[in-house]
Sequence to fold (427 residues):
Amino acid sequence: MIGLGNVGGGTLSILAENSAEIARKLGFGLRVVAVCSRNPAAHALPAGLAPALITSDWREVVAHPDVEIVAELVGGTTVAAEIVEAALDAGKSVVTANKELVALRGPELWQRAEARGAALAMEASVCGGIPIHAVLREGIAGDRVEALFGILNGTSNYILTEIEQRGASFGDVLAEAQRLGYAEADPAADVDGYDARSKLVLLTALAFGVRLAPSSVPTEGIRRISPIDFAYARQLGSTIRLLCAARRDAGGLFVSVRPSLLPLKTIMAGVRGAYNAVWVRGAFGADTFYYGRGAGPLPTGVAVVSDLMRVARELRPAPAHRVPPFAARTLEDAEPLPIGRQVRPWYLRFRIKDRPGIIRDLSTILARHDISIDAVLQLPEQDKQDLPFVITLEAAPEAAVRAALEEMAALEFMVEPPLALPIEKAV
Fold:
């Protein structure tokens, strides 16, 4: 095991405390031969574990003759990539929880593993406590996935539900999340959508058999979401979640990561706090839903240990037709469809300096882009120099909506550019 942080520590605890059950299920035990950390002395190993090697040099772990499986739990895309490549080149199987690395280079690493007769297992890389890889790779492999939606970042979901429940500002809730350890000191990966984007790339590979570059996925974070947006969402019978979406359309896939309005009656709207969820629609099996802890030492540790068990089974009889980690034997290179072609209803939230003619001016711009208004909502507000109100739109192409927003942002009565959130009806 390389990396003794939260996930590594949780994994070791499970291996020690659940060793009898693991051996009963496998028919043989798992032995921790070597552990590696930048500062091994800082970690107390669970009772019952007695590794032959405790080191700060990962190369010693990979080279150890008794190591058959390397668990890479350090994260990132630099040293982690060196570890995984070295292990695979040595013919040793790899278990990883590294969503960033696997999203960026997963298919390449799988081909490297297969060429050397090794396995690459990555269940813990997405939705730590939910076995969503196994579901897409094997559980519903006979179906054709038509759409996949996910709440894949627990930190963002915690922040949004706290804003919703308490009416606190984004900044206040973020600071609290950092104090509680839910958010990092630099929260950008979580609140700007990049962590969720890596996870969506992985799930898209599993569900649709395509390889996307993370940078090709349209991504927006949650920094601009405020209590007033939840107040207006309630008026519309909805809530707001950071939604990861991938859906088939003629000619390809629409994919995105962005805050979206979800009707309160939908199952995804009930996902609160640091929980994750994935909703899948199949062409034949219809809807399935998966829910659980998305992170944490023990939920993620369970996924790591389960992968260790699966790889250990494969090492014994060496099956001729191992299930590949991305479900398909090969992934097709793909680019998402231009998001501007997607047709959706929209929520537009404005903050303006009040004066006569504002709705007229906004309606004129929308009409110029062939966009129809569904409703106008305004809650009581005292500050006429910073007045929020909402316009909901009937379904319209995103490109037209974005062009209209660009015009609106230049109007002299705008306090800030309009906030635009797609309204998802079917999740």
Residues 6-128+297-325 form a domain with the Rossmann fold fold (CATH 3.40.50.720). The chain has three domains: 6-128+297-325, 132-293, 340-422. The two ends are 39 Å apart (CA to CA).
